[in-house]
Amino acid sequence: MDIRGRLVGLAVGATIPLVLAAVVDLWGTWTDTRRQLNVSMAQQVEFAALAFEHWIDTQRQPLITAASYISAQEDRMNDILRVIIEPRPQWIDLRVVDSEGATLFSAPADAEPLPPGIFGKLMDDLRQEQSAVETDWSRGEGRYLLAIAEPLANGGAVIARIDGATTAEVFRYLELPTQSLITLLDPQRRIIYRSSGLESYVGADIGNSSLFQELDPQRGAVLIEEEESAIDETHRVYAVARAGPTRYLVTIGVPSETLYEPARRQLTIQLLLILVALCCTVIAALVIARSVVKPLRRLVTATRRFGKGEFSARVPTKGYTEIIELGDTFNEMAESITKREARLKELDELKSDFVSSVSHELRTPLTTIKTLTQLMMRRQMTESERYESLETISAECDRQIDLVLNLLDLTRIESGAFDFLHVGVDPVAIVQDCLRLQWHTAELRGHSLVADVSEELPRLYTDRGVLRRMLSGLIENAIKYTPDGGRITIGARATSDHEISFYVSDTGIGIAAKELQHIFKKFYRTVESGETQRSGNREVAGVGLGLYLTQNLIRHLGGRVEVVSEVGQGSTFTVFLPVGQDADADQAEQNIREEQHVATATTG
Asked: Is the N or C terminus of the chain more exposed, i.e. has fewer CB atoms within 10 Å?
């Protein structure tokens, strides 16, 4: 039987069982859809409860601040409370009370007394290690306040009362299903917020609803129930969640027909479409059979050729759309594999170059160290010769350490594990540190190392170690690529009120214009084929990581690096960094200084 007869027979033979299988599958889809809708509602109500819990935590932060000042600045407590409450118009009053509930300080000064029972409930919450939040209904039905407390070491508390209408802001931007209803209940199951008909239902007690009967009082369990509302008699699907340790509840209700009707309608449409599609299969089989075999044979032939290593094999794209797409996909796959093979070959060459460069960088210092060590062991040396040998060994050790550190930094940057410590930094001190670190190296080459620093530069809030290391690396490059007796300038100036620039300028060999766009790439070296670079009569080796690391680290600090260069005239690298504002930076810097002082005192 040819392919046409097989397709027709397959379509007819599969019609009945396929319809039955489709019905079963669609019913499973309907069940899964309903379960997913329930899960979605559960997630939404958990998110709403978390939003309310976060809002409560936000309101507690000023109370924690006030509590921390009680013992240290008790004589200024009224002023502190006033400073805290003034920018919060939604706060009705703020007070400090003793263990008996008597008000010690308050803002405003004429704040009305706490309603009876509120203080006791708040203190009970604190003793049970729960969030001390209670609803104050003393202003009458429909009007309420939220009382939040933070404990004091002497047994008292700092208490704030907040306008209950503010809770509407917590849920305003939540994206909920159409016609959904969100409700917030206090621990006594009284409504304090309802997204529909707020004024009418605030204060209503719905504690008898079966929705709460199985709610676990010890944790924020979520229940999905389908029942009729006791308030507006609408049949809804409800999700309930506890707002963390606050004992407040959040419910989301969606009318059953709104939630499930689209799924039911989609189920019916899909069933009809399956029946129509099955009827069309027989007709389509006759048409498709005439044009499907030949393209498939061409595809098989091309696949076999490609499998034998003939990577130029491609498939002509003719026929139906599906056949064209299949051919295009094969051609794209073949092209991708061809490019991948070329890329793998390129990477293999890059790996070989990298391993060769790193091996050279590691072998050269070790060879020098070994040679000098053997000389020092085998023959007597004058003190000056001994000092010169030790100095050379130290320099080669530093060179090797720098290479290892660069490789470690490369790994940490690309894995996202590089940690930055932002502290206050004096730009002038950074320039002076870099000059001191590189002075000897520049002197050996006969270079003139000059500082050009503007007066009265603002302090930076950045990572001192990273900045110093990056600038030192730029100076090292300038020393390497400048013929002996050159001039190297490192400077700092304020480019604006919010930015400071550091620059390193040299009179070296410069960089060709075509190389400038590549110098910050990983493992890139400005001499073709990875050959050894030369500066004057000196060979300069490297693996092409310095500028790559510099650019990436400076970007992590919020800055940028720019370069201007001309062959034979020299280069200027400029690092732009934002001044930054970090309230914790000065404290971090003070802590570092104290640790250094303690360490010095201990060793002394």
From this structure: C
Tell me whether the omega of the peptide bond preceding residue 108 falls within 30 degrees of 0, making it cis.
yes
Helix (H) and strand (E) counts in the chain: 13, 19
Give the 3-state DSSP-derived string for 238-250, with helices as H, strands as E and coil as C: EEEEECHHHCCEE
**Among all chains, which residue has been given the structure tokens 């409800």?**
238
Q: How many CB atoms lie within 10 A of CB 99?
A: 12
96 in Cβ contact with 105 (< 8 Å): yes
Residue type, 69: Y
Specify burial of residue 564 (Cβ count, 10 A radius: 0-12, 13-18, 19+).
middle
- Tokens 């004057």, residue located: 536
Q: 321 is written with which tokens?
A: 């759309």
Residue 512: which of 532, 529, 526, 523 has the closest Cα?
526
Distances (CA, A) of 243 to 210, 240, 464: 19, 10, 43
Q: CA-to-CA distance for 531 and 539, rounded, in angstroms? A: 10
> Per-residue pLDDT for 590 more than 60?
no
Q: Are strands 223-228 and 235-242 parallel, antiparallel or unpaired?
A: antiparallel
Q: Exposed, middle or buried: residue 519 (CB in 10 Å: 0-12, 13-18, 19+)?
A: buried
pLDDT for 225 equals 65
Torsion of CA 382, 388, 394, 395, to 10 degrees: -170
Q: Report the alpha-carbon distance of residue 496 to residue 558 in Å, rounded.
A: 15
At 160, is the pLDDT very low, low, confident or very high (cuts 50, 70, 90)? very high
Other beta carbons less than 10 A from residue 78's beta carbon? 15
Average pLDDT, the chain: 77
Side-chain half-sphere CA neighbours of 486 within 13 A: 26
From CA 248, how far away is CA 252, in angstroms rounded? 14
Q: Tell which residue, 94, 55, 91, has the closest CA to residue 78.
A: 94
Phi and psi at residue 157, in whole multiples of 5°?
-160, 160
Q: Which residue has the tokens 């920018």?
A: 87
Q: How many CB atoms lie within 10 A of CB 74?
A: 12
- SS3 sequence of 227-292: EECCCCCCEEEEEEEECHHHCCEEEEEEEHHHHHHHHHHHHHHHHHHHHHHHHHHHHHHHHHHHHH
Q: Which residue has the tokens 């009967």?
A: 213
Contacts of 147 by beta carbon, 8 Å cutoff, 6+ apart: 114, 118, 122, 133, 134, 135, 136, 159, 160, 161, 162
Q: What gap in Å lies between CA 291 and CA 7, rounded to an integer?
A: 13
51/534 Cα distance (integer angstroms): 63
Q: What does the pLDDT look like over 90-128, one tens digit per residue? A: 999 999 988 888 888 888 988 888 888 888 888 888 888
- The length of the chain in residues reads 604
Q: pLDDT digits over 227-257, tens only?
A: 666 666 677 788 888 888 888 888 888 877 7
Question: Whole-angstrom Cα distance, residue 377 to residue 383?
Answer: 14
Beta-carbon count within 10 A of 29 CB: 15
Contact 144, 136 (CB under 8 A): yes
Token pair belonging to 89: 């118009």
Going by the DSSP 8-state scheme, the letter that residue 190 receives in this structure is B
Give the model's pLDDT for residue 190: 86
* Angle of helix 321-378 versus helix 383-415 axis, rounded to 10: 160
Give 249's strand partners: 185, 242
